[in-house]
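User:
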Amino acid sequence: MSALNYKHLRYFWMVAKTGSIAKAASQLNLTPHSISGQLSEFAEALGVALFRKSGRSLELTDTGRRIVSYAETIFSTGDELLELVRDKSFATMSFRIGCADSVSKLIACQLVEPALKLKEPVRLICREGRLDGLIGDLAVHRLDLVIADRPIPGHFSVRAYNHLLGQSPMTALCTQALAATFDQPFPACLHNAPMLLPGEDFAIHQRLLRWLEQAEVHPHIVGEFDDSAMMNAFGQSGAGVFFVPTVIAAQVSQQYQVVALGQIDGVVEQVYAITTERRMSHPATVAISTLARDKLFV
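Assistant: Predicted structure:
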């Protein structure tokens, strides 16, 4: 037997459930003779006895009982599949995005939003984590896209492509009360000032340190953060000066009630879309790229 005949399996299953060929034939709208013939073909193809006669009724053999348990699983799974197909959300296209924890949540949210406004509905699945883990998930197709602040690290032998979505200079922010204590213009005012920096996993971390060194500014670094939202919250509390991409500086200023001290044009944060596509063709990735080019990073 090269392949299982599922029609014969259903006939056998129905006879086993109802206890007789006549009852099974009635439920299947077939003649008892037809069911009997199909059962014989099924047993012959399997090379096993499925029933034995017990008076006027049929009794399952041990092999028949085992086959019934498999048939129960097969047909209950089929019923579940039908229920899923009837559910409109089952047909919705999924788009799985991984966002590196070193990317600003405000930027990521703005980039991803167009994917929810496509003509064909998309179910968005977002994952956040370290870039290394997200690239691994992209490699085995658990993700369709990774948003990152750097290209794929060189130690990865993954067939994926870096698409630069845009870049932004950085702006220094702090509370109005902290800004009032400074008596020098930017960036000299940062000398000995309390400062909050993004953690070492952020691509911008070393760039900011180099810029401070070149500007001969030596702040008092009071904290480093692996989560930009937490850094912003500490900045809101007055713990120190912090940096955000200029493209979202106005939003951060409004949300966290802080003011801008100045912009650093020589230090830029880059945002990449990493995909397994050499040229982005998925409707969601195209929408993200278009928004980045035409609106966010203009």
